[in-house]
Amino acid sequence: MKFTPQKLNLFLLTKLPSAYFSGVRLSSISDNEVIAKVTHRWINQNPFRSLYWATQGMASELTTGILVMKEIDTCGKKISMLVTQQKGVFTKKARGKILFSCKDGSKIKDAIAKTIATGEGQTINMISSGVDEQGEVVSTFEYEWSIKVKN
């Protein structure tokens, strides 16, 4: 599959509709970075009139997961992927347009090479940060992805 924002936004609609209907959209994709955006609206707000934490989690997880999916697709092997741990830190109310970015694409190649060579599972820790329109960080999420070659 070619990894473009348009194709992956269609993927969201068909495979992750809660993220799609919450307004999560991919903006850009490269080998090392993925950016997703979400705008605070009525459908994705909490009772305090800011972006609900779960919507922030969907956008941030997507940025890390797309990087893993893209590298798995490039390697040509069947490899499973699963989030095994997650941590979120919220530093400011998320209002307006929030951009989540993960720049950890370079960590994935080595882990995939190791799991292919050894057959043992590997873990990758990746960080996605959400920044508001004023350039301030509103939340930071850390994901531990586990990958393993499928038998």
Structural topology:
Elements: H1 5-15, H2 17-21, E1 25-29, E2 34-39, H3 53-75, E3 79-90, E4 97-102, H4 106-118, E5 122-131, E6 137-149
Antiparallel strand pairs: 1-2, 2-4, 3-6, 4-5, 5-6
Tell me about this structure.
With 151 residues, this protein is of the alpha+beta class. It has one domain: Roll (Thiol Ester Dehydrase, Chain A), CATH 3.10.129.10. Helices cover 34% and strands 34% of the residues. The protein has 4 helices and 6 strands, in the order ααββαββαββ. The protein has helices spanning 5-15, 17-21, 53-75, 106-118, and strands spanning 25-29, 34-39, 79-90, 97-102, 122-131, 137-149. The protein has a 6-stranded antiparallel β-sheet. It is globular. It starts with a helix and ends with a strand. The mean pLDDT is 96.
Properties at a glance:
single chain; 151 residues; alpha+beta; Thiol Ester Dehydrase, Chain A; six-stranded antiparallel sheet; globular
Say how many strands there are.
Answer: 6
CATH fold group:
Thiol Ester Dehydrase, Chain A
Main β-sheet: number of strands, strand sense, barrel status?
Answer: 6 strands, antiparallel
Provide the low-confidence segments as ranges. none
Helix content: 25-40%
Give the count of helical stretches.
4
Structural class: alpha+beta
CATH H-tier superfamily: Hotdog Thioesterase
